[in-house]
Specification:
The complex is a heterodimer of chains A (about 350) and B (about 290). Chain A folds into 2 domains: about 15-235, P-loop containing nucleotide triphosphate hydrolases (Rossmann fold, 3-Layer(aba) Sandwich); about 245-360, Nucleic acid-binding proteins (OB fold (Dihydrolipoamide Acetyltransferase, E2P), Beta Barrel). Chain A is about 30% helix and about 30% strand. Chain A has helices spanning about 50-60, 100-105, 105-110, 115-130, 145-155, 175-190, 205-210, 225-230, 235-240, 260-265, 355-360; strands at about 15-20, 25-35, 40-45, 65-70, 75, 85-90, 165, 195-200, 210-215, 220-225, 250, 270-275, 280, 290-295, 300-310, 310-320, 330-335, 340, 350. In chain A, a hairpin with a 2-residue loop joins strand 15 (about 300-310) and strand 16 (about 310-320). The longest helix of chain A has 18 residues, at about 175-190. By secondary structure, chain B is mainly α. Chain B contains 13 helices and no strands. Chain B starts with a helix and ends with a helix. Classes of the chains: A alpha+beta (about 350), B mainly alpha (about 290). At the A-B interface, strand 6 and helix 3 of A face helix 8 and helix 9 of B.
């Protein structure tokens, strides 16, 4: 890190029972989240789940109907956006089309009347950091999507704010560039040390970049966890269906025959069972008899949609294997991989060790 | 290949005939006749060189019209542009009764200038007019705004601003609505207040519209004279006489076509200079998307 651009000091964000409603609709319903200082937190959810609204409430561009926003140890609920020590990258980048790259980046510094010498120093440091040195006198219209993205990012980091908010910043880029930017964003965040709050509907983005993923559903927090925990132990059927490509297969317990009925009886409620595609393997000695409904070759893997009774289970098989749609197949799975959900509420049920042992035999 | 050329020409012909017949040929004829004397019955026009132009310099009424028009332009152009922008900014925001307000602002534009003239004639009428009635409420004496050579020019000027501003507002409103909301939010996050945002973002982004409006305002400051026929007929004592009105009177009331042609050429020359100036100088300073 060059001397002209010292590391940011991330600050924590605390959202306490945030609600937001417009006339009839309730966009957010008593949301409680705490975001540790210097962490990379992804707000993940399907469109319309309120994740962008939540971000805008943190930014101060929207005011919550109820609840408090705390940054560091200050209550900022009623504070204007520029007094919250944060910067933001918009989905559309929001670059000023009539200003060149340099002017766009130092827009805020100029607004706050920082001395010219200081401005130039910071500009050069950030331009070097983002690889924008050669583009400083270009207008945004003459830049590619990726370059515009970088300018927006440069504008966000030059102010050395302790929090950076991003609203689906990669959704306008093509797949390859998106992957590169993902790596770059993560590296940048770790290098500069600011707290990142990142809104996305793309679970892969959230899983790959974040320290902590906040999964939102219909204005409520569904689960807050580290990416691995979220993937390994989804706490609801919603989380199970949302995370992973393809997501966890969920099926009626009866698909497992007697074993399934036994599970339901033990749990004392109707069950939905879940299995990740990689937890199931085609195996000649497998207990589970299925018919392959579709086989999709993906290169390294072949994804098999297998019908067990009326239920569909997705299986990740090797790309080298040969399976044809319509043919029968036997499947096996490790019992500890089986996830149990209450069918009525969608909540995850804890399976007892005894159950795992019972399944194994 | 030759066939294509004929085809293209035939397609262009209708437009060309109209354009030539009503714009180019009359313009050239005007320039030519400005170097000839006015034909009278048995005395056809003869070449007089630049005599018609020299005569203009001694024509007090022409000089007076020029000054009047200059004042008229110097006030109507900036006033109508600024008022249009203020109105547009006002109705761009979200508030109750917005569409009614927008309509109210735009109404002057759809009225014919003659009707506008009549409305304002009523406003300015001494004692009975709207303005004097309001003045009466404050015990101020009746005032003959249009009868006083010192104020008459401003009465016709106000009417032109009133007529223009609503029209220009529509263009500004359209331009304002193309500015994306995230730009405002991005600026807000950087601590830019409304005035800073207006000066550093809004104003530059609506410059193309401003340029367009400026061109129109300049043209209108010469062209928009219909209300003078209703309100003042150029009087009293030529105090509200504008160039185009003067040309009209010279040409079609006194039939001094030579003099009127010379004046027309002068206007044309000045307007072309302004157009070239806008094209080569202002255009470069404007950011287009």
């Amino acid at each position: 890190m060059s001397a002209a651009h010292p590391a940011h000091h991330g600050r924590s964000i605390e959202l306490q029972s945030i609600s937001k409603s417009w006339d009839q609709t309730k966009a957010l319903d008593s949301v409680n989240i705490s975001i540790p200082a210097g962490s990379f937190t992804a707000l993940l959810g399907p469109s319309g789940c309120g994740k962008s609204t939540l971000l805008r409430i943190i930014a101060g561009l929207e005011t919550a109907t109820e609840g408090t926003v705390r940054i560091g140890d200050e209550d900022v609920t009623r504070r204007p956006p520029d007094k919250r020590d944060l910067s933001m990258v918009f989905q559309s980048y929001a670059l000023f089309p009539h200003l060149d790259v340099a002017e766009n980046i130092i827009f805020g510094l100029k607004t706050r009347k920082e001395p010219k010498k200081q401005r130039t120093e910071k500009l050069l440091a950030v331009a070097e950091l983002m690889g924008l040195e050669k583009l400083l006198d270009r207008k945004p219209g003459a830049l590619s999507g990726g370059q515009q993205q970088r300018v927006a990012l440069a504008r966000a980091v030059i102010a050395e704010r302790s929090i950076c908010l991003m609203d689906e910043p990669l959704s306008n880029l093509d797949a390859k560039l998106r992957h590169e930017m993902r790596v770059e964003l993560r590296a940048l965040q770790q290098k500069l040390g600011f707290t990142m709050v990142y809104v996305t509907h793309d679970q892969a983005e959230a899983i790959t970049m974040a320290d902590q993923v906040v999964l939102l559903n219909a204005g409520q927090v569904e689960q807050v966890d580290a990416p691995r925990a979220l993937y390994d132990a989804p706490r609801s059927t919603f989380a199970a269906r949302f995370i992973g490509t393809p997501p966890m297969s969920l099926f009626e317990a009866s698909a497992l025959g007697d074993m399934g009925r036994q599970l339901s009886r033990d749990a004392g409620t109707e069950l939905l069972l879940g299995l990740r595609p990689e937890a199931v393997t085609p195996n000649e000695k497998g207990h589970l008899k299925a018919t392959i409904a579709a086989a999709e070759f993906q290169g390294a893997d072949t994804m098999l949609d297998c019908l067990v009774g009326d239920e569909m289970i997705t299986v990740r098989a090797s790309g080298r294997s040969h399976f044809a749609a319509g043919s029968p197949v036997s499947l096996s799975f490790a019992p500890e991989e089986l996830a149990l959900f209450d069918k009525a509420s969608g909540a995850r049920l804890i399976k007892s060790q005894k159950l795992v042992e019972a399944l194994r035999s | 290949m030759r066939r294509d050329w004929i085809y293209a020409l035939l397609l262009l012909l209708p437009a060309m005939v109209l354009l030539m017949g009503f714009t180019h040929i009359p313009a050239i004829e005007t320039v030519i006749s400005s170097f000839f004397s006015t034909p009278h019955g048995r005395r056809p026009a003869h070449f007089v060189g630049i005599d018609n132009y020299l005569y203009l310099l001694e024509d007090d009424v022409f000089i007076r019209s020029c000054w009047n028009n200059l004042i008229y332009a110097a006030i109507t152009i900036p006033a109508s542009i600024i008022i249009a922008l203020v109105m547009a900014l006002f109705v761009h925001s979200r508030m109750a009764g917005l569409s009614f307000l927008r309509m109210a602002y735009f109404t002057p534009t759809v009225l014919p200038m003659i009707a506008v003239g009549n409305i304002w004639l009523f406003f300015f009428t001494p004692s009975f007019g709207l303005i004097d009635q309001i003045r009466a409420l404050f015990d101020l004496p009746a005032q003959n705004w249009m009868g006083d050579p010192d104020t008459v020019l401003y009465t016709v000027l106000v009417v032109a601003v009133w007529k223009n501003a609503g029209f220009f507002m529509i263009f500004y409103l359209a331009a304002l609505q193309t500015i994306p909301e995230p730009l405002r939010e991005a600026a807000k996050l950087e601590g830019a207040g409304r005035w800073t945002f207006f000066r550093r973002v809004t104003l530059p982004l609506i410059m193309p519209t401003t340029l367009f409006i400026l061109v129109n305002a300049i043209i209108n400051s010469v062209r928009l004279i219909d209300h003078i026929f209703i309100m003042t007929l150029g009087g009293p004592n030529n105090a509200s006489r504008l160039l185009l009105y003067h040309i009209y009177e010279t040409a079609f009331e006194y039939w001094d076509t030579a003099s009127a042609s010379a004046m027309t050429v002068v206007i044309l020359f000045v307007l072309s200079l302004l157009a070239i100036g806008q094209f080569f100088w202002l255009d470069r300073k404007v950011h287009y998307k």
